[in-house]
Every structure is written in structure tokens, then in C-alpha cells.
Amino acid sequence: MTVMESKLLFLHGFLQNGKIFSEKSSGIRKLLKKASIQCDYIDGPVQLEKKDLPFEMDDERWQAVLDSQTNRSWFYHSEISKELDLTEAIQTVVNHIKENGPYDGIVGFSQGAALASIINNKITELIPSHPEFKTSVIISGYSFTEPDPENKSQLVIAEKFKDSFTPKADSKTKMIFIYGASDVAVPNVRSKYLKDIYSAAASSEEDPKERVKAFEHPGGHMVPNKKDFIRPVVEEITSALTN
């Protein structure tokens, strides 16, 4: 498959939708389009109510959220990882891929990045006829952790999701991680923790650095759009799609 025929699936973050994520990632999207790569954005299945928010929001701001139809998410937020339920989220993505795929890669932001990581690891199990992704781009991503039973000061992947966040040992997918040095919503230590899982899985290869790439920007919880930053990111994506 040449890059001319390539397709990427984009998964938005909490309190976003596909349209807004398309706008927020316009820098990357436009460069990918120039490289003849199709970018598909879809909406998460959950329509949030104000009571579902993990933080306070005044009525005026909430009304703006409703007006823009950005009261979307992939799953309901919880600080307790074992309470998270991704059944509907995974099924929504699987159904879309079955109807519109195959896809050469997946791109996710924040909550969508956590989901994208799982879909990346499980794609050939979820859809046996679908090939492994050539690349996955995880922006402000994180995993679902809990205190280590043997050392409460350390975090480990929650038992419920341990298999979900375990990359295939023989995976050839190029993993690209993007995170912000000033991110408060998802501190970059969480994004690096997820990245390190893939780096460890790739460590037996001749050059694991070729399969796991990391890009840190100075900003916060956002998709960077400055050309100097995103050009090398897009180059990594296109090189993965043409190999």
C-alpha cells in the first residue's frame, strides 16, 4: 500500500468531538493531506451531562459546550482505574473500522490517546481480518494505573487493563508519542510512563529507537500546530506509511 492510499483514524479527547479535534489538529492534518493521507475523525459514543464532569463548570460555559456539541467522550471519567468501562468505546471504534477501514494508523488525543493505545495493541484480535497498524500517534496519552500492591508509592497498570496496555511482542507498528512539558491535565510523566511500556517491548530489537519516537513540546494539554515542531512528526508518520 502506498502513502497515496493511506488512511488514519483520529480519536478526540474528553469534552471534544471529531469536528473540534479536526480543528485543533489542523497543522498536522494539513501536512498529512499534502502527503495524500486521508484523516478520518469520529465522535465518541458518550454524551456527557454536567454531573459527569470531574471538575466544576459554570452554567454559561456548560451551555457553550452543549451548543458546540462538544459534550462528548469515549468513556466516563473516574480516578479509580478499575471502575472504567471501555466496552462501548472499543465497540464504536471497531464498528467504524469494519465499515470504513482498513486503516494504516490511529491517532488519539488525551482520553482518545489512551483508547488508541489499546486499539493499537488489540486490533488484530478485535478485527482478525485487519492488519496491524503501520503507525500510532499518541498525543498527551496515558494508561490506567493503580498503586502497586507491593509498593504503594509506585504505580502500575491496573490489573483489569494490564493485557490492554501490553504491546504485541513482535509488533512492527511505529509508535509516536507527543506530550507537553507544561501539561497539567495529563502530566508528561504519565505520557512517558506509557511510552516506556512500548520502549521496553521494543528493546529486544536491533534499533528500538526506530520504532518508538517521542516529541516533547513546551506547551500544555494541546495538539501542537507549529510547523517547526510538527514537520518531523509528519515525516515519521509518512515514513512509517511508505515502508
Structure description:
This protein has helices spanning 18-24, 26-34, 59-67, 87-100, 111-126, 188-202, 227-242, and strands at 7-11, 38-42, 46-47, 72-73, 105-109, 135-139, 145-148, 151-157, 174-180, 212-217. The strands form 3 sheets. The chain has a 6-stranded parallel sheet with strand order 2-1-5-6-9-10, with helices on both faces. It has a two-stranded antiparallel sheet with strand order 3-4. 35% of the residues lie in helices and 20% in strands. With 243 residues, the chain is of the alpha/beta class. Helix 2 (26-34) crosses helix 7 and helix 4 crosses helix 5 (111-126). Strand 9 (174-180), helix 6 (188-202) and strand 10 (212-217) form a beta-alpha-beta unit. It has one domain (3-242): Rossmann fold (3-Layer(aba) Sandwich), CATH 3.40.50. The protein has 7 helices and 10 strands. The protein is globular and about 50 Å long.
